[in-house]
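Hi team,

As requested, here is the filled-out complex form for the zinc ion run. I kept the field names the same as last time so the parser does not choke. Let me know if anything looks off before we queue the next batch.

— J.
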Amino acid sequence: PQPVRLSDYRPPDWLVDTVDLDVRLHPTATRVIARLGLRPNPEGREGSAITLDGDELALKAVTLDGEPLAGSAYVATSSALTILAPPQRALVLEIETLVDPSANTKLMGLYRSSGTYCTQCEAEGFRRITYFPDRPDVLAVYTTRIEAEREEAPVLLANGNLVESGDVEGTSRHYAVWHDPWPKPCYLFALVGGRLDRVSDEFVTATGRKVDLGVYVEPGKAGRAGYAMDALKRSMRWDEEAFGCEYDLDVFNIVAVADFNMGAMENKGLNVFNDKYVLASPETATDADYANIEGIIAHEYFHNWTGNRITCRDWFQLCLKEGLTVFRDQEFSADQRSRPVKRIADVRLLKSHQFPEDAGPLAHPVRPQVYREINNFYTATVYEKGAEVVRMLKTLLGEEGFRAGMDLYFDRHDGDAATVEDFLACFADANGVDLTQFALWYAQSGTPKLAVSGQWDEAARSFRLDVSQTLAPTPGQSDKQPMVIPLAVGLVGPDGEDLPLVLDDGTNAERGVLLITQPKQSFVFRDVAERPVPSLNRGFSAPVKLTSDLSTAELVFLARHDADPFNRFDAGQTIALAYLVEATTAARTGRALSPPEALVEALGSTLEDSALDPAFIAQALSVPSEGDVAREIGTDVDPDAIHDARKALRQTLGEALAPALKAAYARHAPSGAYSPDADSAGRRALRNASLDLLAAGGSPEGIARAVGHFERADNMTDRFFALSVLAHSAPDAREAALAAFYERFRDDPLVVDKWLALQAQIAEPGTLARVGGLTTHAAFSWSNPNRVRALVGTFASINQTQFHRADGAGHDFVADAVLELDARNPQVAARLLAAFKSWRVLEPGRRASAERALRRVADRPGLSPDVSDIVSRSLE
Ligand code: HT7
Ligand code: ZN
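And here is what came back:
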């Protein structure tokens, strides 16, 4: 496909004010009649044709103002309909198309999931339902009539409010008419038809309007939808309180389906979800599942204002809705749970997914300048780094300044298809600041590096911080400009208390934030009577890679005393990471290195600090992942050596901290029935982290404890955690436990996904054959994205030693899987292929095999645009 460039943006030539859809559902021949109220756009090109997008469509009829169009008046292909010389005035175009939802394996447009009809239109799926100007800056008011066999689809849903329903006289069919008064782009269109159970509730908005809430699930699963409903109501209240955003229809529905390309979709008034992010019960869902459900329900709901009421002008502005909405859902979860633990989890996700993306061939700015396939830009950079950019705005402007900017944004742009510039202008105008340099965060790709060193001048009683920033070239961007970096800092005195931050000009560093704008800058603090330890980038105030001259002893001090919980956590991780890098080098030459005593002691005192939140302690105990270590090493990476070093460290920690771990395990035993609340989840997290380290060395006592934990578990969190410990650390006990787990949950696909994913992660040479074998297991299907992601996706993204096997067989397996999938579901195939994104950091042998596998994919004729785009950028 031809690249699409931001610089080529032109307003649409024709606008659509109204869309009246008549959809007659049929498993293989659904008839769609679309009546479009069009008018020339005064801002478009005068006298232009009407060009409508299509994708795999069969045109049956077309009329203009009620008259059939002559064959010479239009050109129709399966991918476009052009009305050649339309009258330049408001007109009504009626288009009839036929689509086959059962044959739709791409899961874009109208498709069937376990028999339920559903739609997915973002980014460009509406054109697979009818011909339409499929771009987000064409906003219309939709009325949707759906008709179906009552027996097959008793539930008929679409966007907006229900205005009419009934039987189609003299037939076995029925219909429903939905009207959405809010103009919207077509990517927010949705309809659902099926046999579904409903969980009902209601919400009264801040101004007293009653909203009917419904969560629809497969028959028999309503008992697992209660938590999603609860999360929805909490989200609705939170958005009113935190941002003044009130819901605006009489109805809000959520539908859970089993076949879905992503997590969920924010269609106006009718969110459609991957059922993985709706269904939960203590027996089937882990604490992590509950937290994900809460966060994703909130995320999609929050889109009602950031995405729907204010949408994007074009797909380059995707971060405008996604980055902002991720920021909002992160804040919601932080308010509902532990703020520090949520921040730690969010930063871990950023570092593990976004940092490698930014460092590899797929790097792109938060707002890309060009794309060949928009589906490939729903990335960690757009979402997670996009959220960090919004967070930095808040750090720079403060709570009130940020809220003033958001208020102005909602006020000024309600009903608009907006841009990043529009968004930033609201913050600049509301606060009287210039954000020109800040805007570089949207334009420059790559992770800035910040090198910081500190010097205490005893005689002058001052402390100087020298800061320098660099940003390495990334694909398509060789020259970089310095960024605005809000660096939150503290100076921690010998007693562990923060010192006042008075700069040498007598001003205070506002909210403890230093503003870095130059390649090199120095900051001098006065009245520093004793040598402090600087705590840098507190709360991870900027998404940068920070290096400092802090000694191990100073990091240990921060791990024990820093008032900033994120940095307290991060100090321990920094020590562990530095050790793992060294130990990896040693492992490559067959040497073993003992971990620093100081690290063991610091973790020991964290473990025994009863003032700390157990969830925080659990995070502190988790050793940096193999991916973290690979990223830190950055070149000539040998995953086997990393694995050996990490395994040895975990074993040492388990042995050295055994008494404290056993005490923590005992202290956090459950005291009542399972509850998914944050405190209970935190206690389980610490108990399970203790169990894990105690078994890490494979000692009979540790394994026996894990077996007992598995057998006695009364909830999925404990049961699955124990199973994971056995799978990774107890080859002898593993198979029996895996078999028992499967037998118990074989009829529950979402739990079977956990079973598949766990086996895909085992860091042993037999895993590739195991994963290959599982692709033919009755529980696996290439056509369900959740199954594919659980088995093949987990293997490629988590199992560093086996995906990057020295013999290249892991790379070949994933390349074959991508090719197998591509014909069926290009989006899922392309995402799987993106697991190769860090292939260039591997040692030469593995790098060569990754390249061979990528070239084999690239050489396959007839690749989808999705896979072709990823493979060509990966090889550039
Ligand atoms: N806005 C939604 C993105 C999405 C999506 C994109 C492409 C293809 C399928 C998709 N399903 C959902 C979800 C979100 O980020 O809120
Ligand atoms: Zn989103």
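Two things worth flagging: The longest helix spans residues 380-413. The mean pLDDT is 98.

Thanks,
J.
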